[in-house]
Amino acid sequence: MYVYGCGKVFEKKQDYLLDNFCVSSAIDNYKSGNLHLNNGEEISIISLDDVDNNSPIIIMREEYINAWRELRSAGILNEVIFPYQILPRTEIENRLFSEGERLYEKEGTLFYVDKTGKEFCVSGFECMSEFLQYYERQCISSNEILALDTKPLNRNFGFSRGTPIDRYYIENWLEKNKFYIAGDVLEIAENTYTKKYGGERVKNSYMLHVENDMPPFIKGNFETGEGIEREKVDCIILTQTLPFIFDVESALKNIYKMLRPKGTLMITVSALEQISRFDMERWGDYWRFTDLSLRKLIKQSGFDEIQKIDIYGNVKVACGILYGVAAEEFSKTDLDYYDEDYPVIICAVCKKK
Fold it and tell me: Which of 204, 205, 235, 199 is nearest to 307 (CA)?
């Protein structure tokens, strides 16, 4: 048998190939001389012009549709064996041939037969990756996505339809971690979550505000450090605030400063969400986060321990939050399926030294 190509694909499959086939020569468009095999033997590298018409040819190239076309265009009619039949398979081969799928040639045309028996002509494609894209489009319809409107259902985060999806996640997370809310607790602008989840564990409830200085409000600014008293509180609840602060590093350092030793920061940030026009026009809407960026920011702000980071959301919910769909419109199964590659909300509990 001949092998057509003696590069990376051949190197990957060579051991299986030598154990199961008798290879006489290699055909390569760019190399000449002899090829040293893993078993210690050598075979000659020949050109297409030197191929006889009796021996099968095993294609050992990534672009094997194109290789098959080259052989037939050169008038070589030898039996062709495709590389997916030789182990180990490449990533594309695993996707296309792991469940009994196959290629076959008929009257000068190459066909792919999928696991259901459906046939696709592949002769017109340059490579299998191009065919794979076409095949996925045919088998997994995008019609429902393409039919969506270019405008959202609701521009106020789903409030007028029900509970905003981010609030669903945030409040469920706070309920699960409410035992951290204790002692002197600070929240931003209001103390809704302090009262709802802190209960009798809360000694004093404070609210940070950039203008109001009437107790229990504390006039202060995390970004600038204005009014931030050192070691003032035991717990800070910071929900959906960091995206609206430009200098997040400064803000987190001042939060660290305000916490007492062993104090707790409970923080939530958006990973994917629409622009808040209200905030954008007043003080700005700046950031969306990944769990990695949040971890790094927290660590470099002085916190030596991140108790936990929780990621909430999936691609379906992500579409919903952008369209302004309310949490009540999703099933609990949809909402509680978490895919770390499609985060909507990221929540973290951090401890001060």
Answer: 235
Distance CA 309, CA 326 (A): 24
**Structure token digits, residue 108:** 């000068």
Q: Which residue has the tokens 């809407």?
A: 285
CB count within 10 Å of CB 171 equals 16
Closest CA to 108 of 82, 69, 81, 56: 69
Token couple for 226: 């204005």
Q: Is 168 helix (H, G, I), strand (E, B) or coil?
A: helix
Structure tokens at 124: 């017109």
Tell me the Cα Rg of the chain.
Answer: 31
pLDDT values of the chain reduced to their tens digit, one per residue, 353 residues: 999 998 899 999 999 999 999 999 999 877 889 999 999 999 999 999 889 888 999 999 988 899 999 999 999 999 999 999 999 999 889 989 999 999 999 999 999 999 999 999 999 898 888 999 999 999 989 999 999 999 999 999 999 999 999 999 999 999 999 999 999 999 999 999 999 999 999 999 999 999 998 999 999 999 999 999 999 999 999 999 999 999 999 999 999 999 999 999 999 999 999 999 999 999 999 999 999 999 999 999 999 889 999 999 999 999 999 999 999 999 999 999 999 999 999 999 999 98
Whole-model pTM: value is 0.80
- Classify 314 as helix, strand or coil: coil
The rounded distance, in Å, linking the Cα atoms of 124 and 153 is 42
Say which residues have a Cβ less than 8 Å from residue 225's Cβ, sequence separation at least 6: 250, 254, 257
CA 90 from centre of chain: 22
> What does the block give as tokens for 65?
């549709």
